[in-house]
Amino acid sequence: MALRTPIDRLRQPFDALMGAQTTGGILLFLAAVAAMIWANSPWADSYHHLWEQRIVVGSEAWRLDLSLHHWINDGLMAMFFFVVGLELKREMVAGELSRPRDAMLPIAAAVGGMVVPAAIYLVQNPGGEAHAGWGIPMATDIAFALGLMALLGKRVPLALKVFLTTLAVADDLGAVMVIALFYTSDVSLWNLAMGAGVLGIMVLGNKLGARSPWFYAFFGIGGLWTAFLLSGVHATIAGVLAAFTIPAIPKVDEHVFVRRMRLYLFSYSQQDTPDKGIRSADQMHDLERMNRMTEYATTPLQNLEHALHPLVTYIVLPLFALANAGVELPPDLLGALTTPVAMGVALGLLLGKPFGVMLASWIMVRFAGARMGKGVTWRHMLGAGLLAGIGFTMSLFVNELAFADPLLRQEAKLGVLGASLLAGVLGYAWLVRTPGKKEV
Question: What is the pTM of this model?
Fold first, then answer.
């Protein structure tokens, strides 16, 4: 029987909160609201001044001198993209993206949900500096979309949750490709070549059996991320590339693991236990062997994803929202919301996303033989399309890359925040009222 201490009872509500799928989305929402209130309060100057503070890392010979805002967007968000990359690799190796027949419907839906919003934005902004914002309404925020889906519980089929999860993962992959190909500054080929060399070392380490996270952290941060930061290719792409070098194969298979663990457990049970629960030297040796075998039976990819996911969900993303969602509301709010940029972003997310998801899904079902999951109806698909219109994190991130003009950034942020809020409310309300599929 496990010993239950007072601290365990105190931690129980906190652990339950941190384990809930909706907590990350709630924190993200609260951070965005706090940023909006702060940026429109009498202390608005302190909000902007905080993110302009310079943080210097290095020495006189070589150093990185970036504002706090850039450290968050280029540094901490690289960690977010690293976790995204881990999720993508896991799904490609043994998840929904590993089975082409099952994956083709949500992948096609993700493509449709990216192309149509971009097209709507370009219709609103066919030229000029505003033209560069076409990538903003293409993205889906995984934390918010899946958090709202989790709130629906058993009101929606499990297959719909799988569909939206796969769609969001494929959407992330598309967003990464868009950022890499279209939202980069002047490229330094020397630094890019250095980054490619470091990436090659990490791939070689994988092939040679390197499993230590410190090996990949050293070369990933000290080499790959730094080289990309200096190359002009956005540094967050380094996070995705680094993630794909992490080993995804356990060192021992299930049969070896079970057999060895049985031997160690039998050996442990045969040892004499000293008084007061202190373990003997032989028992400690058996425990160490079991710990090592457990480590061998898991993959470094899953270990890192499990370790970093809470850090990204509860710290990195809320901090990003706090630093980027603080848009000052103009006196003429209606006028700002009806500018071509704001309208292009808002219509892209609110109308383009569900329309693109539905159109691509219908084409795949009608002409390619794709199948919707068990219990999923077209009404469910529309609800998933509406939830996919929650752009928030990724849309705000692309906005920072797309525009140098603060006014255009402000207009796009208003479109992102307004559309994401409406998409979440409409998607949730629609799915709550959508009846389940009747069994025939």
Answer: 0.79
DSSP label at residue 153: G
**Could you read off the pLDDT of 163-199 as tens digits, one per residue?**
888 888 788 888 888 888 888 766 788 988 999 999 9
- DSSP H or E segment with residue 55: strand 54-58
* C-beta atoms surrounding 11 within 10 Å: 12
Q: Which two tokens stand for residue 177?
A: 């490709």
Length of the chain: 440
The number of beta carbons lying within 10 Å of the beta carbon of residue 126 is 10
What percent helix, strand, coil does the chain show, rounded to 5? 75, 0, 20
Q: Rounded CA gap, 99 and 104, in Å?
A: 8
DSSP code per residue over 199-259: HHHHHHHHHHT---HHHHHHHIIIIIIHHHHHHSS-THHHHHHHHTTS--S-SS-HHHHHH
Q: Half-sphere exposure of residue 438, counting CA atoms within 13 Å on the CB side? A: 1
